[in-house]
Amino acid sequence: MVETATLSPAELATVTVFADLPAETLEWLLAHGESRTAADGEILFEQGGQADFMMAVVRGTIQFYAVKGAQRDPVFRVETGQVTGVLPYSRLRNFGSQGVAVGDTLLYQLHRDQFPALEQASPELIQSLVAVMNDRSREQVRGQERDDKLRALGKLSAGLAHELNNPAAAIARAAQALAERAATQPHLLSELLELSPNPAHLCAFAALAAPVAKTDEPAPRRSALEQSEREDELADWLTAQGVADGYRLAPGLLEMGLTEKTLAGAAEVLPRAARPAAFAWLESQQTTLQLIRDVQEAGSRISKLVADVKTYSHMDRDGGFELLDVTTGLDSTVNMLGFQLRQKNVRIVRDYAPDLPQIRGQVSSLNQVWTNLIDNAVDALPAQGGEITLRTRREGDFVRVFLIDNGSGIPANVLPHIFEPFYTTKQAGAGSGLGLDIAQRIIKQHDGRLEVHSVPGRTEFCAWLPVPKPLA
Q: Would you report the helix, strand and coil content of the chain in percent, each value rounded to 5?
């Protein structure tokens, strides 16, 4: 239940925007508006509720909360002497958050239907209220931009952590296996020397096996059935050579391309009793080499990810405009979003024009554009995945960067509003409606333009970026 209280002109004048108004304007406000009191903790309006009143806080505070299910997160406060709610010329129709009174609160309220009459009564107050609205909008845009950047950073951080975890885990597994192999090497070597004490025999065996051991060529690709059959054949041959655990050794020897023919040639120089130890030592050597390659590959992947982060974030350079290759930025953005793309089984098609000229721009800003566009395209694709095409072309004095997805498309009634700030079709909390507005402003800062065309099954964003003119 709304409780009212009588306000005096002096109390109304404590509100900053009303402070210097003439007495007749204050009287007009009191005559056409109403007062409202609220106790500490009382809900003044709900998130999503209709916004019909301008509200001036004469006493107390309004705390705004973003409500998500059972969770309520504080957003901002309106203190004594400030105005909030709907203001003249504002397009606000519904509250974006819940308002709760803090302390004993007294409000002055003016219905939006009174705004035309207020403009006649006091044009100066209307101008002041519009200035307040503009300041509020700028602060809200800055806050939403920060939130969008933090949300994007959260997604990228989660994906990057997953990307780094895979090669890091591979290195850890390979290191553990290498430690186990290293621990068995002295025993295998001791057994081999005991059973084949002739150094000439060992040197001949090593010489016959070494060319295969050092090769970097991968073994021929076989189907799972073919691989199993080959392992069985090699295991049977090893068993015939007196190797008790031939089935354990066969996969590792085959992995490196060692065959019965190669092994037979090498084994002929050794006593039969020494062959099991020799084959075990050789398999251990071969597996050790493969584990080292695994560590090198995983380390290279981590280095590549770090390089992509530096390219994406522009960490090692200043924030000014410079000559850059747009395809490098596109590729680093795709790599940064790799986990998100794989989660939804999205196929990336690169269609880059050869000999594309460089453009002058800010790497980090343009990468934010590519991130927003790719992120929106992923959201538009069905759960089972889809396809995103990255295309670059030169047209006259411009480089055109296309991002095309085969998702559901943008509805015709939405398309005219797609670049409007705060316009979003996403669920509350999933987006602020600023991603495309930010993308468009960044492209405009680069003296370019951003276009969109969409039909069901095909949405195409195209960024036009000017090619710098050569110095005279």
A: 50, 20, 30
Percent of the chain having pLDDT more than 70? Answer: 82
Which residue, of 246, 272, 301, is where some domain finishes?
Answer: 301
141 has a pLDDT exceeding 70 = no
* DSSP category for residue 270: S
Predicted TM-score (pTM) of the model is 0.47
Instruction: Name the DSSP letter for residue 375.
Output: H
Contact 285, 249 (CB under 8 A): no
Bridge partners, residue 89, by sequence: none
- Give one word for 447, left, alpha or beta, with left for phi > 0 and alpha for psi -120 to 50: left
Q: How many domains does the chain have?
A: 3
Residues 370 and 410 in one domain: yes
The three-class DSSP label of residue 57 is strand
The answer to whether residue 145 is domain-embedded is no
Q: How far apart are CA 359 and CA 443, in angstroms?
A: 12
Handedness of CA 324, 327, 331, 336 (dihedral sign): positive
- pLDDT score recorded for residue 147: 64
CB 185 within 8 A of CB 284: yes
Residue 390 lies in domain:
317-466
Does residue 282 fall inside a structural domain? yes
How far apart are alpha carbons 165 and 430 in whole angstroms? 26
Beta-carbon count within 10 A of 132 CB: 18
Helix, strand, or coil here: 298?
A: helix
In a domain, 37, yes or no: yes
The Cα–Cα gap between 393 and 382 comes to: 28
| Domain of residue 60, CATH code | 2.60.120.10
SS3 341: helix
Q: How many angstroms from the chain centroid is the CA of residue 422?
A: 20
Task: At 5, give phi and psi (nearest 5°).
Answer: -145, 155
Q: Final residue of a domain: which of 301, 330, 359?
A: 301
* pLDDT tens digits for range 219-254: 556 677 887 888 888 888 888 887 777 788 888 777
Run of H or E residues at 346: strand 346-352
Q: Are 306 and 347 in contact (CB under 8 A)?
A: no
Q: Please report whether residue 208 resides in a domain.
A: yes
Phi and psi, residue 238, nearest 5°: -65, -40
Encode pLDDT of 263-289 as tens digits: 777 777 777 778 787 778 777 777 787
